Amino acid sequence: MWTEEAGATAEAQESGIRNKSSSFSQIPVVGVVTEDDEAQGVFKPMDLNRVIKLLEETDKDGLEEKQLKFVKKLVRCYQNGLPLRDLAQIFKILNLCAGKIKNQPHFIESAYDIIKLCG
């Protein structure tokens, strides 16, 4: 039976008649184009790997102040929202801040600010 249908379809195509099952409808595709200039005002780039490395360092003088400064800069940078591509790194930074809270209570405010960015 399958060969009969294939033969009928081939004959219909040769004669110019289109079978309902073999017709292809064209679907228009609209691409979303965002220029970098437009997005630059919303999301300022920041090297999150540098912040992660800085938060992973320990036992240096003045390091806590520098770490807090970078986390506050991160919060200012992403005050308009977080791009999804940076979400994993942001949560890693949040976890590092949460781990420091026990010994360095100044990180409570920074961790809270990062959580507010997500909400």
UniProtKB/TrEMBL annotation:
Domain Cilia- and flagella-associated protein 69 ARM repeats positions: 46-119
One Pfam family matching this protein: CFA69_ARM_rpt
Bias (Low complexity) ranges: 1-14
Gene Ontology biological process: olfactory behavior; positive regulation of flagellated sperm motility; response to odorant
Example of a GO cellular component annotation carried by this entry: non-motile cilium
Region Disordered: start-end pairs: 1-21
InterPro entries documented for this protein: CFA69, CFA69_ARM_dom
Organism superkingdom: Eukaryota
Protein name, per record: CFAP69 isoform 8
